[in-house]
C-alpha cells in the first residue's frame, strides 16, 4: 500500500472527528440558546407592559404595582405624551395594553387606521369641571358673562350640557352629546361662549367669568380641582360614554395578563388612590 493510500483514510478520520466536534459544538450552543430563549420567554410572561398618559393614568398604574406583584406580575409603565403612539405600539405588539383613551376615541382610531383594538374594561372618568374666573357665583351669573369652553365638538357638547345642568342655558330637548352652540334655545343671561382649544382653557380663566375644563387639563395646569363650582356626575351621559378604558389587541380581552391588570385596577387600592389623590377630578367607574 502506498503512502497516498495510507493518508486518505486518515484524512477521512480527521474530517469525521472535526465534523463530530463541530456538531457537538453546534448542539451545545443550540441547547444554551434554547435554554436562554425559554428563560427569557418565561420572564416576559410575568411582565405586563402598559402604555399610558402621564397623569392620571401612569400615576394610577404606579399605585397598583403591589396588587400585580401579589398576583405574580411585574408591571412596566411606558409613558406617552400623545394620543397616537400608544395605539401604534399596542397594535405592533410592543405593549400588552394601553390606558389613556375612551371608547369613542378608540373606535374612531380603529376606523381611521384599519386596526382591531378592543376595550377590556372601563376604569375611570375625568369629569369636566366649571371653574371660577372673574366671577365665582354660578347661581348669579352676570349678564353678558363670558364662559370659556373647549372648541372641539365632543368636549364642547359636554360643556354645554354641564352649563345646562346649572341653569345657565337651555338646549334643544334630547340633543345630548351632539349639542353645539346652535342648539341653545334659551340664554337668559346672554352669556358669550368663548371657544378655546381644550388644553388652553385653564390659561384663559383670567380673561373670562367662568371656564369649563377637562379633568386632565385641570390637573396638568395645577388647578385646585376640589374648588370646582360644578362638575359632571359619575352617572351622567358623558361618564357612561367617555370613561377611560384599558385597550388591548382584539382577542386578548380575557388573557391572564389582561384579567390580572383589570383586577388590580378595579381593586380597593386603586379606588382609594383615585379618590384620595384626585378629589373628584378623576372618578372610579367600577
Folded structure, characterized:
It is a single chain. This protein has 286 residues and is an alpha/beta fold. It folds into 2 domains: 122 residues, D-Maltodextrin-Binding Protein, domain 2, CATH 3.40.190.10; 104 residues, Periplasmic binding protein-like II (D-Maltodextrin-Binding Protein, domain 2), CATH 3.40.190. It has 11 helices and 13 strands. The strands form 3 sheets. Strands 2-1-3-12-4-13 form a 6-stranded mixed sheet, sandwiched between helices. Strands 9-6-10-5-11 form a 5-stranded mixed sheet. The chain is elongated. The N and C termini lie far apart (92 Å). The N terminus is likely disordered.
Helix/strand layout:
Blueprint (H helix, E strand, L loop, with lengths): L2 H42 L2 E6 L1 H10 L1 H6 L3 E6 L5 H7 L5 E6 H11 L3 E9 L3 E4 L13 E5 L2 H13 L4 E2 L12 E3 L5 E5 L4 H4 L5 E4 L1 H6 L9 E2 L5 H6 L1 E6 L6 H10 L2 H11 L4 E2 L2
Parallel strand pairs: 1-2, 1-3, 6-9, 6-10
Antiparallel strand pairs: 3-12, 4-12, 4-13, 5-10, 5-11, 7-8
Amino acid at each position: 500500500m502506498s503512502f497516498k493510500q495510507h493518508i486518505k483514510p486518515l484524512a477521512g478520520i480527521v474530517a469525521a472527528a472535526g465534523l463530530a466536534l463541530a456538531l457537538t459544538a453546534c448542539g451545545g450552543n443550540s441547547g444554551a440558546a434554547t435554554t436562554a430563549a425559554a428563560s427569557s420567554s418565561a420572564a416576559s410572561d410575568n411582565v405586563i407592559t402598559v402604555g399610558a398618559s402621564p397623569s392620571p393614568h401612569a400615576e394610577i398604574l404606579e399605585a397598583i404595582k403591589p396588587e400585580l406583584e401579589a398576583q405574580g406580575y411585574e408591571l412596566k409603565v411606558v409613558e406617552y405624551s400623545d394620543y397616537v403612539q400608544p395605539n401604534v405600539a399596542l397594535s405592533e405588539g410592543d405593549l400588552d395594553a394601553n390606558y389613556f383613551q375612551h371608547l369613542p376615541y378608540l373606535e374612531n382610531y380603529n376606523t381611521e387606521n384599519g386596526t382591531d383594538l378592543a376595550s377590556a374594561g372601563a376604569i375611570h372618568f375625568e369629569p369636566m369641571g366649571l371653574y371660577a374666573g372673574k366671577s365665582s357665583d354660578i347661581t348669579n351669573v352676570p349678564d353678558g358673562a363670558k364662559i370659556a369652553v373647549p372648541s372641539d365638538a365632543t368636549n364642547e357638547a359636554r360643556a354645554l350640557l354641564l352649563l345646562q345642568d346649572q341653569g345657565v342655558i337651555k338646549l334643544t330637548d334630547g340633543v345630548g352629546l351632539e349639542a353645539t352652540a346652535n342648539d341653545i334655545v334659551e340664554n337668559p343671561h346672554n352669556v358669550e361662549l368663548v371657544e378655546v382649544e381644550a388644553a388652553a382653557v385653564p390659561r384663559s380663566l383670567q380673561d373670562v367669568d367662568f371656564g369649563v375644563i377637562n379633568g386632565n387639563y385641570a390637573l396638568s395646569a395645577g388647578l385646585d380641582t376640589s374648588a370646582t363650582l360644578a362638575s359632571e356626575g359619575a352617572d351622567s351621559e358623558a361618564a357612561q360614554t367617555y370613561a377611560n378604558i384599558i385597550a388591548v389587541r382584539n382577542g386578548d380581552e380575557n388573557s391572564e395578563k389582561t384579567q390580572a391588570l383589570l383586577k388590580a385596577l378595579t381593586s380597593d387600592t386603586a379606588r382609594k388612590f383615585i379618590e384620595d389623590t384626585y378629589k373628584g377630578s378623576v372618578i372610579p367607574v367600577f
